[in-house]
Amino acid sequence: MERHPGTAPDTVTVLWCTTDGDERHKAHTLLVRSAAEMLDVAPSEIWLEHEAGGRPFLGGAGEALRVSVTHARGALAVALTGRAPVGVDVEVVRGLRAGALARAWLDPAETAWLTGLPEGERSAAFLWLWTQKESVGKALGQGLRHGGMSRRVPLPEYWPPGDAAGLVLRPLPDAPELASAAVMVGAGRHIIGVALRGADGSALRGSGVGLQVRRVDGDAYG
User: Fold this and answer.
1) Chain segment 11-47, per-residue pLDDT in tens
2) What is the b/e burial string over 9-45, where b = at least 16 CB atoms within 10 angstroms of the residue's CB?
């Protein structure tokens, strides 16, 4: 099958929305419908399955894609790309004891960056890092086990970060076969983290992996 835009292994498409409930069902519906649209096939030709460890994958015509799903209270997101493992995570921005959490769980360089920010910005900064670490764990198929919280992700080039326009996933400092990014969406009320693992564990090409983030209508997936 000819690849359509957004299905290249080095590009990740993320669709997200807010919702008033039933996030899991709506996320699965969004995933199947968006995959069908991306591949120009009927939704009935694609179905959702899960590996033994819980990682989702698409059957039927959807085998051409690698996917990830996430949902939090009132929000959900799906990520789709070509045949390279992908992970996505969404979090609601909320108050946290960010400095203490950083010192307990993060890499020292990340902790130094976070604690150098104004107090009122640290919770969002912690979640900005957290969502990437969660996404990397999903792309690896192991979650945050095996030191996932201490695995370094790229620090932002500036803070607070801008919107998703022109955003790329950047290689992890100690793992060039992995790339990640995070973006604030919904007027800063949510943060989405995304990660990609190079096919067969190989280093990702170029200086960054393209990322497309788009909000959709959550009511359409009830």
Assistant:
1) 899 999 999 888 999 999 999 999 999 999 999 999 9
2) bbbbbbbbbbbeeebeebbbbbbbbbbbebbebebee
